[in-house]
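Researcher: Good morning. I'm working through a list of sequences from a screen, and I'd like to move beyond sequence-only analysis. For each chain I'm collecting a predicted structure so we can compare shapes side by side. This is the next one on the list. No need for commentary yet; just the structure.
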Amino acid sequence: MYVVETDNLTKYYSRGKIKALEDFTLQVEKGKIFSLLGPNGAGKTTLIKVLLGIVFPTRGSARILGEDISNPGAHSRIGYLAENHRFPEFLTANQVLFYYGKMSGVEPALLKERIPQLLKLVKLENWGDTKIRKFSKGMMQRMGLAQALSNDPDLLFLDEPTDGIDPVGRREIRDLLKNLRDRGKTIFLNSHLLSEVERVSDEVAILKNGRLLQKGTVEDMVSVKQQFTLQLAEGYDLLQALCAELALPLVSQNGSFIVSVRDDAQLNHLIDKLRERQALIRGIVPRKITLEDFFIEVVEEKEVAAP
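Model: Good morning. Structure tokens for this chain:
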């Protein structure tokens, strides 16, 4: 089941001079952590605003939780954390969650039960009666996440959820998001912290100039096809000689050796040859790059390819 679907979604501003989204087609499956990546001005925020009904599309269509975005009926099942969100500073944490929960349609009696659980969930259980003006940036991010969860949504839109949070806090947020996913919730992330995205996401889409460049699993994006890192106790000369014999490219990197093969059969043939020569193999690992490297490669490649 898809909880987010767009079909040729397009949004122009300034009478068509600014193309924020251009024929954007995307599907997000239920129970996934999905991340939207792109450089500044790529159209990420515009996409979220269109999906939430904050702005109207120029053309195309979209559905949220099976409902057309023109129908506000699904909004009660959505949680949203905006980037640079603000709460009234004179309110306490308890009051913020109560008022925002009521605006989301949650019954007051249910809210009174839920608020202590939400504060505990984001590690703010001892700050319920403290006014928002005394909260740090990281605490405000945690409050924003609690607010987004106040109506127990099926779908969460989170814009830069770990911005301003220390490394320990970011790990706690990652664990929380994974727990929510395991409970069947779908999480739509918008973040510039690619290392965080890589750790937590199931799927990623890369957006540039309003167009979808790439979509897939994180594993597919960071894996380098048919390249393997070999770790040997000794015997680089032997490995070098065998790779030369088999015409396999080989490079040395930080005490390991990266070999490129045509297919798995060729890799196994190399391993057999190493074992015949009594080489001690400590590890054979598929080579990976970082999501940041992949992102930059895709964006720059499209720039070069552009007319």
